[in-house]
Amino acid sequence: MRAALVVLAALAAAPFIGFGEGYVLTLLARAMILAMAAVSLWLLVGGAGMVSLGHAAMLGIGAYAVVVLDDARITDALVVVPVAMGAAALFALVTGAVAIRTSGVHFIMITLAFGQMAFFTTASLAAYGGDDGYTLYGRTTIGGQRWLENRLVFHFLCLGLLALALAGGQMLLASRFGRVLRAARENPLRVQAVGFSPYPYRLIAYGIAGAIAGLAGVLMANAAEFVAPSYLAWQRSGDLLFMVILGGLGSLQGAVLGALAFVLLEEWLGHLTEHWRLIFGPLLVLSVLFLRGGLVGVLRRG
Q1: Does a structural domain hold residue 226?
Q2: Which of 36, 143, 244, 281 is placed for a possible disulfide with 216 were both Cys, Cβ 3.0 to 4.6 Å?
C-alpha cells in the first residue's frame, strides 16, 4: 500500500511543483479516472478471479447517464452521480447474473458479448449523437455551482475519489465478504464444502465494480465534456485489463500504478513519433513477459 500512497501524494503535489498547466492537469485527470476504472476491474480479476472483456460497458453507461440527464438539463451531481452509478450497477447485476454462471473463456466471451451489445446500443442512439457522440452543454454542477469548471478543483476531486475507491477496495477485500471472494477464486468447490455459495458473492462484487466504473464514467464525461460510443468499445476494456495486468494482479494498488504507467507511456511515445503504436505494442507484450508480478512486483524486489 505504500507505493499507492506515494503515488497519491505525488499526484496531490503535482499542481504545485511545476505541473499546474491545463494540459498536464487534464492528462493527470484522465490517468486518475482510468485508474479508478482499473481498480473496479481489479476487484473482479484479482479479487474474484473473473476476467472481464466487457468492463468498459459500465464505464460508458456511467458516461451516457450524464448525457441523458444533460439533454434533459439535469446537471446537479446529487442527481447525476447516483443515477450513473445505479445504472452501471444495474447493468452489471443483470448481465452478471448470466455471465457468472460460466467461467474461464466462456465468461470472457459472454462479457465481451454483453459489452458489444451495449456499444452498438449507444451507437444507435441518434438523439444523443449516435456514432458522432454527444457534446455536453457544460460540466456537472455541485449544488448549482460550477466548481468542476476549475481544473484544479477537478484534479483534486478525481484524486479524492480515486483514493476513496482504493481504500474502499482494500476494506472490502479485508472483510469477511472479501475473504470468501478470494477463497472462491482459489477453490470454489472447497468454499461450497464449508457452506458458502460463491455465486451471490461474485454477483455482488460484480455490481460493486460496475458502480465504481459508472462513477469513473461520470468523471470521464466531465473531463472531456464529450461522450461517444467508443467509451464502451471492447478495445477500452482491453486497455483496462492490460492496466491491471501491467500493475500486478497480486495487489489492488497495482491497478493504480498500471493505469498511470499506461497513460503516461502512451502520451510520451505519442510525442516522439506518429507511429508510436509500433513501439507501444511490443513494449506492452515485453512487460507482460518479463515484469514478473507487474510493476508492484518490480517495486517489491527493488
Answers
A1: yes
A2: 36
